[in-house]
Amino acid sequence: MAKYLCIRCGREFDESQLAVMMNVRCPYCGYKVIAKARSGEIKTIRAL
Ligand SMILES: [Zn+2]
Binding of Zn(2+): at which residues (predicted)? Predict the structure, then answer.
Protein backbone atom coordinates (compact mmCIF):
# COMPACT_ATOMS: atom_id res chain seq x y z
CA MET A 1 0.00 0.00 0.00
CA ALA A 2 1.25 3.43 -0.90
CA LYS A 3 2.51 5.67 1.83
CA TYR A 4 1.96 9.39 1.88
CA LEU A 5 3.72 12.14 3.76
CA CYS A 6 2.37 15.57 4.62
CA ILE A 7 4.97 18.18 3.78
CA ARG A 8 3.54 20.59 6.34
CA CYS A 9 3.16 18.57 9.55
CA GLY A 10 5.41 15.68 8.50
CA ARG A 11 2.99 12.92 9.46
CA GLU A 12 2.77 9.73 7.47
CA PHE A 13 -0.45 8.08 6.42
CA ASP A 14 -1.53 5.47 3.92
CA GLU A 15 -3.88 5.25 0.99
CA SER A 16 -6.89 4.11 3.04
CA GLN A 17 -6.65 7.16 5.28
CA LEU A 18 -6.50 9.37 2.22
CA ALA A 19 -9.60 7.73 0.76
CA VAL A 20 -11.61 8.62 3.86
CA MET A 21 -11.08 12.28 3.08
CA MET A 22 -12.18 11.72 -0.54
CA ASN A 23 -9.67 14.36 -1.46
CA VAL A 24 -5.95 14.86 -1.67
CA ARG A 25 -5.19 16.36 1.69
CA CYS A 26 -3.57 15.52 4.98
CA PRO A 27 -6.00 13.77 7.39
CA TYR A 28 -4.24 15.41 10.34
CA CYS A 29 -3.85 19.08 9.45
CA GLY A 30 -5.85 19.32 6.22
CA TYR A 31 -2.96 20.65 4.19
CA LYS A 32 -3.50 20.11 0.49
CA VAL A 33 0.06 19.38 -0.55
CA ILE A 34 1.27 15.91 0.26
CA ALA A 35 4.09 13.72 -0.94
CA LYS A 36 3.74 10.17 -2.13
CA ALA A 37 6.53 8.09 -0.70
CA ARG A 38 7.53 5.04 -2.74
CA SER A 39 10.65 3.02 -2.11
CA GLY A 40 13.27 5.74 -2.28
CA GLU A 41 11.20 8.06 -4.41
CA ILE A 42 9.09 10.94 -3.12
CA LYS A 43 6.62 12.56 -5.45
CA THR A 44 4.82 15.71 -4.44
CA ILE A 45 1.08 15.78 -5.02
CA ARG A 46 -0.68 19.09 -5.12
CA ALA A 47 -4.45 19.23 -4.87
CA LEU A 48 -6.19 21.23 -7.56
ZN1 LIG B 1 -0.42 17.48 7.71
Answer: 9, 26, 29
| CA 34 to centroid of ligand 1, rounded, Å | 8
Q: Give distance in angstroms: CA of 17 to centre of ligand 1.
A: 12
CA 11 to ligand 1 centroid distance, Å: 6
How much distance in Å is there from the Cα of 43 to the middle of ligand 1?
Answer: 16
Grouping H, G, I as helix, E, B as strand and the rest as coil, residue 44 is: strand
DSSP 23: S
Q: Write the pLDDT tens digit of every residue in 1-48.
A: 778 899 999 999 988 887 766 678 898 999 999 998 876 677 888 876
In CATH, what is the architecture of 3-42?
Answer: Single Sheet (2.20)
